[in-house]
Amino acid sequence: MSIVIRDVREHELDSILALNNNAGSAILPLDAARVRSFYDNAEYFRVAERDGNLAGFLVGFGSDSDHDSCNFAWFKERYPHFFYIDRIVVASRRRGGGVGRAFYADVQSYAELRYPLLCCEVFLDHGADPALLFHGSFGFHEAGQNVMPDVDVRASMMTKELCSYGWVRETYGDELPDLPWVGKPRRHAAGANQATGT
């Protein structure tokens, strides 16, 4: 069956929390308040659906966000304009089935219209070779390492230049065409919906 990538729905937040906290040691645990904060503030918060079931999720923030992650802060100290993947989680039964690749294709399509750089981290203390190889196959490289002080976890800080950004910026400036596949940042779309009552 095909993989559908779509925006998360509010009633799915409990399922997102369970999916995250069952993912194992390569993903930091969350609580309900943090998942709600992602829902309210993340620029990109999408789920993968396969066979009618949630197969994973990805959360991301633009560099102008006030996101409080220490890894986000590491990138912010070094780069003026970027899109940060805070976390990607794929259900254990779906790993190796293309869900992660579908997410990365989708998030890159979103980010390259708006940002010159895609950033993420890979934890190095929990058997990182599959994750490093996965990211390397997408064109990421290590820009440095960061030890997360609250959890004492060492992370490889990875970046990927988005070569389409320059052309898109030069051609369209700040006004992207109103096309369904372009989409709008979630926080702006949510604000517009609240303002109009839709």
Automatic annotation (TrEMBL):
GO terms for molecular function: acyltransferase activity, transferring groups other than amino-acyl groups. Residues 3-163 form the N-acetyltransferase domain. It comes from the Bacteria. This is GCN5-related N-acetyltransferase. Keywords: Transferase. InterPro entries: Acyl_CoA_acyltransferase (IPR016181), GNAT_dom (IPR000182), UCP028520 (IPR016890). SUPFAM superfamilies: Acyl-CoA N-acyltransferases (Nat). It comes from Pseudoxanthomonas suwonensis (strain 11-1). PROSITE patterns: GNAT.
